[in-house]
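My current task is to audit a protein record that another person submitted. Please read both lines and tell me whether the tokens look consistent with the sequence. Do not assume that whoever made the record got everything right. I have pasted the whole thing underneath without changing anything:

===
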Amino acid sequence: MDTPKFNCGDTAILKKPHPCSSYSFLILRVGSDVRIKCRTCGHELTVDRIKFERMIKKIESAEDTAK
């Protein structure tokens, strides 16, 4: 399976919702772990990169949303 490509500033749509019922997260930092921020409630969390890659349903690039 192909690993998803994502950068800081991209929006990740996850398979399961956050407790506030949002699926959309802003990617703040990328490394061996990924720091993300909920687009609805603003809660920030750090997730292991491998686990995060399995959580992703879709990536919306920052360039696509800027247009």
Notes: Helices lie at 49-55, 62-66.
